[in-house]
Specification:
alpha+beta; two-stranded antiparallel ribbon
């Protein structure tokens, strides 16, 4: 059993892995539109699910002894989240609402089947999406939605972080950008959000300087400002990357 990934100070990262794990499949659909009360219900349901799973693994006599002993040896971090019983005070919401702008990033961009003419930075994390639901097909229980595809670095469009001009002219969206679900599984990493945040700040400054809408920011000027700040906006032919090796270094073979 591969229960955890070790971290400093004797702690571990208990992530989702395998057919049945820490993901409470299909129980989060109401979150984006949910009221505070509904979101609290979803939070408590996820908490109960993971508490129950860990208790079962540590105590049920039907679980092999080695697994019971391994799980029972672990506990919650006593020096973290002390106000909420040592459990995190919020769920990790990877993706809720996403904007639809003049350009939607998709798996075609990730796989370099489509290219943009206004790149503002690079993403390189593999296409990573967890299962979305559990269904019964021909009498078998089947998880649906898991995607793990290694990719090379690819370029993100400026148009994907700013709205359509007829909808809003003074807004930039570096996190909930215009992207499909599959592409967002790659883009949603924190280093990429930093790149997109740098771009959004630069574009906002240029829009303010010239007293124009964010849609009217001159891309050539934006690109030059990003390059001056040290941002890499294009993947050159002389650059080398091994996406499979990167995945293996991160998650193991």
């Amino acid at each position: 059993m591969n229960l955890h990934t070790m971290l400093p100070n004797g702690k571990s990262d208990l992530n989702n892995f395998g057919a049945i794990s820490t993901d409470n499949l299909g129980m989060n659909y109401d979150w984006p539109e949910g009221s505070y009360q509904r979101r609290e219900e979803i939070f408590q349901d996820h908490l109960n699910y993971d508490q129950g799973m860990l208790y079962y693994l540590a105590n049920d006599l039907r679980v092999p002894v080695a697994i019971r002993e391994e799980v029972a040896a672990w506990g919650l971090p006593k020096d973290e989240f002390e106000q909420t019983g040592n459990w995190p005070h919020q769920l990790y919401i990877r993706e809720g609402r996403r904007m639809i702008s003049d350009y939607v990033m998709t798996d075609h961009n990730c796989l370099k089947q489509r290219f943009v003419d206004d790149p503002i930075g690079l993403a390189s994390f593999h296409m990573d999406s967890h299962n979305c639901r559990r269904v019964v097909i021909d009498g078998r229980c089947v998880n649906e939605g898991d995607v793990q595809v290694p990719i090379a670095p690819y370029e993100i469009s400026y148009r994907s972080i700013r709205p359509k001009s007829e909808e809003c002219t003074n807004l930039l969206v570096p996190v909930c950008l215009s992207s499909s679900h599959i592409a967002y599984g790659s883009i949603r990493m924190e280093p990429i959000f930093m790149i997109l945040g740098q771009t959004a700040g630069t574009a906002a400054a240029l829009a303010f300087k010239h007293e124009i809408a964010v849609q009217d920011v001159d891309y050539k000027e934006l690109k030059q400002e990003l390059l001056k700040a040290g941002q890499v906006v294009e993947w050159g032919d002389d650059m080398v990357d091994d996406p499979i090796k990167r995945m293996e270094e991160t998650f193991g073979k």
